[in-house]
Write the C-alpha cells for this entry.
Amino acid sequence: MGKPVARSKTVWFNIVTGIVGACNELAPVLDQLVGLGYGGETVAAVRGGVVLLSILGNTVLRLYTSEPVRLK
C-alpha cells in the first residue's frame, strides 16, 4: 500500500535541500544588498557542501527505505 508522501523522510530531505540551495543562490544578492562580506569562495564552498550533503543524505535515506510512497 505505501505511506503518504508527507511521511516520507526522503521527500522532506529533498524539500529542505531545495530550500537551502535556493537560499544559497540568493547569497550573492544578499551580500551586495547588506554587505556581509561573503566572497565568491564562500558561496562556492557552500554550494559544494549542499551538493555533497544532498548526495549523501539521499543515499542514506534510500538504504533505509522499506516501503513505497503512495501519491493518493
About this structure: The longest helix spans residues 9-34. The two ends are 10 Å apart (CA to CA). The helical segments are 9-34, 40-64. DSSP finds two helices and two strands in the chain.
